[in-house]
Amino acid sequence: MHIVVCVKAVPSSTEVKMDPVTHTIVRDGRESVVNPFDAAALEVALAIKDERAATGEGCRVSVLSMGIPATEALLRDGIARGASDALLLSDRAFAGADTLATSYALSCGIRELGSASMSDAAASGASEHGEAAPGPSLPDLILCGKMAVDGDTAQIGPELAGLFDMPCVTDVRELVAIERDRVTVRHATDAGIELVEVPLPAVLTVAKDIAQPRMPSIAGVRAAAGAPVAVLSAVCVQADPARSGLAGSPTQVVRSFVPERSDTCEVLEGSVPQQAARIIALAEEAGL
Amino acid sequence: MSGLMVDAARCVGCKRCERACAFGGIVVEGRLARPTDACTLCGGCVEACPVDAIAIERDEAGEGSGRNLSAYRDIWVIAQVDAEGALLPVAFELVGKALELAKVRGCQVVAVLGEAGRAPRQAERLAATGVAEVIHTVDERLTHADAEVFAQWICALAEERRPEAMLFGATAFGRELAPRVAVRLQTGLTADCTALDIDPKTGALLQTRPAFGGNLMATIECPAHRPQMATVRPGVFAAPERVAAGAGTCVDLAAGIITQAPLAPEVAPRVAVLGIEPVTGGSIAQAERLVVVGRGIGSKKNLPLMERLAELLHAELGCTRPLVEAGWLDYAHQVGQTGAAVAPKLLVSIGVSGAIQHLAGIGGAETVVAINEDAAAPIFGVADYAVVGDAVEVVTELIAQLEVRD
Asked: Does B398 sit within 8 Å of A279, measured CB to CB?
């Protein structure tokens, strides 16, 4: 079984401070971390790998990201936690990507991970993957976080599913069972928590609380130091320049601004009991 | 190739771009700005540059794939029904907004309703809201379990009819459906818009949403691709009363025509539903009165006090994201862009500073009372009534008065 986990590097804090005078963003050298939703997705994949290892079945977990070169360290950390291999798509040609261009780049990376050369490398590194299929093969399962904490769009998973014509289940809260050809999960819908089964290959996007990410083991950190983290450019993964980065992004930010405050707010003066009485009167107006 | 271009002749090395960049994507060396590998082409520096030395150059060849934009017209609203088959309120909210946009643009609004047929006359209800047309079908396969089935139906319609813009409710289902449609049509999609505008001449949809961790708003356009697609959280736009009232009450509106458009026979669902646990208990999204608490309530031990206040006000309890992240309350209570959008008659906001992402979720509230120690807190910018004071002190007094009242 081959599982690809897509991860994004995000600022370690989503609290962006604004300079009140210049209205510009104050940067203080904050470090990047793996988007917590994606970290949970990796844990789900690693749990499947452990479970299959216990029954003597192979499972390759690949971590995939598109980002700046420094993201390599986060992917290496994924290997230290137990992933088999990792691929970083890093190229100026990918910069400025909106979700459509990002999902396209990731789809190129997923195909690359299924290529004979990368499958073989992972197999020789961890000696757990079965016979390499001739030519690129798609993974059995693609896992993503439900959304990234810095972008909040929640579009990458469904867009990847669309690109590969795979079924997709979003906001997965529990992985109930996984077999060779199908997966059963509980996920949140508008109507409630649904128990669904989909055939593999499939895309799942997971909620943050689906699993508590494990820490890297000492052996894992040692292994990760020499582990294969491929860093590939757009050309290497045969990405079409017209579909990559800014050129491949239909959407553009045309303006960004600090929202203005309204000045219609009435300050409730007086003592605390007087203030409380006013609030209760407002609650009565609202049907209390 | 596309990229960030710095005009060396214009750049004065003032470093405003460096300060404006959230990503460390541009540095000034030797009085000349230079983009780094961290540049995400967000355009922040372009705006910050006082001498217009920075521009983002786009590879025109890649754009639009030669689409003839003028062949696209009208605004579509993708309507969703609930488990019982009744239209969700967000469908009416979107129709209301779409009618406004259509008036500016001089085009029509078309509602799209695919349903499994659990409740009768939903198409007629939609047709009575002021839309010109409802594209409709009833099909067993159109349950909400499999967004791909809907995506195939909608994409086939969109390829044939070419809408200029498509609006989706940002429900769990809408957030799965819209990207599947966007990727099939290879067009742009903006999630969770809090404001929509349209250019009367070009038809460009100006889509505004919180960005950069929620401290900035970004207006996004999709200039060379059609249809333009956006999702909007329930409760962000108010449904015009006559629209919300639905069939039977709008004497001044001619009902739109209903066109049947069947789903292709070969489309097969792949998601099998084995069971469902319906949502139980009060929902903050539907609450008439809501108490929302933030980090300013001090510590977790003050939480029971806030719960007691909510109980006495017969209100639901909501909170900000940091409280969920700290484990004080679970996600079902989270209000904001990544939680629920709420639309109560009264919202009492306690110890909430008011990050944009949180504010994005409370735009539908009729009256907002904010209690916060910090008179400069952004929450007061959206509040109707402000109490500048200690949250615990004010809440304790509120509880005392309400208990006497009971």
From this structure: yes
Q: Where are the beta strands (DSSP E) in B245-342?
A: 257-260, 272-278, 289-293, 316-319
The reported pLDDT for the residue numbered A26 is: 55
d(CA B70, CA B67): 9
Question: H-helix or E-strand containing B404?
Answer: helix B391-405
**Residue ranges in B106-186 assigned as alpha helix (H):** 122-127, 147-161, 172-185
Closest CA to A33 of A24, A25, A42: A42
Q: Which residues of A touch B382 (CB under 8 A)?
A: 261-262
What pLDDT, on a 0 to 100 scale, did the predictor assign at position B247?
Answer: 43
Going across the sheet that includes B205-211, the strands are: A252-257, B216-221, B205-211, B195-198
pLDDT more than 70, % of chain A: 86
Residues 6+ apart with CB under 8 A from A127: none
**Of the ranges A1-15, A227-241, B241-255, which is most confident?**
A227-241
Element (H, E) at A72: helix A72-81
**Chosen from B311, B382, B398, B401 to mutate, greatest number of chain A CBs within 10 A:** B398
Cβ separation A162–B40 shorter than 8 A: no
Read off the pLDDT band of A259 (50, 70, 90). Answer: low
Provide the token pair at B95: 């129709």
Cβ–Cβ below 8 Å for B180 and A158: yes
In the three-class reduction of DSSP (H, G, I as helix; E, B as strand; rest coil), residue A214 is classed as coil
**Arithmetic mean of pLDDT, A202-226:** 91
- B276 and A194 within 8 Å at the Cβ level: the answer is yes
Comparing CB atoms, the residue among B58, B219, B345 nearest residue A255 is B219
Task: Please state, in angstroms and rounded to a whole number, the distance separating the CA atoms of residues A75 and A64.
Answer: 8
Q: Give the pLDDT of residue A132.
A: 45
pTM for the model: 0.83
Has residue A25 got a pLDDT over 70? no
